Amino acid sequence: MSPSSQAAARATALALFLALAATLAHAQAQRSGESIVSTQCAKCHGSGVAGAPKIGDRDAWSARVKAGVDPLVRSAIKGHGGMPSRGGMADLTDPEIRDAVIYMVTRSIAP
């Protein structure tokens, strides 16, 4: 293998390593649904600001979850009514938003 081929192989290996490290760091940094709800979502869903369904309001959440969780997650990602996209936290990932929605739903309709 020529010196330039060796250097290219090392550069490729380093790039793959750095991509894997970044992916692992992101996976480890994922916030829980509970932490997202307590730091952001509860600002409106805690008291029902601007018509947001209150956490714990079984009737309000039961009506919304009839079509499934996916439409609720899409609404949270895109924004809905007075709620900005991603609940006002632009750095939330789709899986984090899903976890937050599921956390609120289960706290509201679970027996």
Describe this structure in words.
This protein has helices at residues 3-28, 33-45, 58-65, 69-78, 94-109. The chain has 111 residues and is mainly α. The chain folds into 2 domains: 1-30; 31-109, Orthogonal Bundle (Cytochrome Bc1 Complex, Chain D, domain 2). Helix 2 crosses helix 5 (94-109). The longest helix is centred in the first third of the chain and has 26 residues, at 3-28. The chain is elongated. It starts with a helix and ends with a helix. The relative contact order is 0.15. The model has no long low-confidence stretch (mean pLDDT 86).
Q: How would you describe this structure in keywords?
A:
Cytochrome Bc1 Complex, Chain D, domain 2, 111 residues, 2 domains, mainly alpha, elongated, 5 helices
Portion in helices:
55-70%
CATH topology of the largest domain: Cytochrome Bc1 Complex, Chain D, domain 2
CATH second-level architecture of the largest domain: Orthogonal Bundle
> Could you tell me the strand content as a percent range?
under 5%
Structure class: mainly alpha
CATH superfamily of the largest domain: Cytochrome c-like domain
Mean pLDDT: 86
Low-confidence stretches: none
Radius of gyration: 20 Å
Largest sheet: none
> Based on CA inertia axes, which overall geometry fits?
elongated
Separation of the first and last Cα atoms: 67 Å
